[in-house]
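Work through what follows:
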Amino acid sequence: MQWTIATFGGFILSLLLVEVGEKPDIGVVQGAFGGLVVAFAQAFVLRERIQNPWLWVFSSFTASVLMITVGIGAVGWIVFTTQVLALRVIYGAILGAIAGFGMGLAHWLAIREHTPLAWQWILVSSVSWALGVAIGSAVGFFLHQFTQLFLGEVMGLAVTWLVVSILTGVNAYRILK
C-alpha cells in the first residue's frame, strides 16, 4: 500500500511541476524531473528494503533521460494524438511495454544485490506499464470525448499511474520481501 501511495502521490506531485502534453511537447528536462519526483517517493518506501535507495533514484533518472532522448518519450506524462481508440490501446500497450522494460532494467541494476528475484522486476515493470498505458489511454480517450476537455486526458494519465502503482506495488512487496 505504501508503494502505491508513494508512486501515485509522486505522479500527482509531479503534475504541479511538469506540464502534461503530447509527445513533442515534453522535453528531456521536464520528463526527467517528473521521473525524479516519482523516484524519490519510491526510494522513501524502499529505504528499509534496499541498502542504497539513492541507486533507485539514479537508475530512474538515467532511464527517463535515455528513453526521452531516444524518442520513446516521457511515458506517463504524454498523451496520444490519435483519435482512434484501437490505435491508442495498441500504441499504449507497445509503448508502455518498451518504457516499462527500460525502467525495469534500470531498476534491476539497483535491486539485483538485494534479492535473487530482482530479474522479475523487468517483467513486472514491462507488463504493468503496458497494461497501465493501454487502460489509461482508453480512459483518457473516453473522458476527453465526453467532456471535450484536455483534463479528460490528464485523468487518463492518472489512471495509468494508478494501475502501474498497484501492479508494481503488489510485485515489489513480493520481490523484495
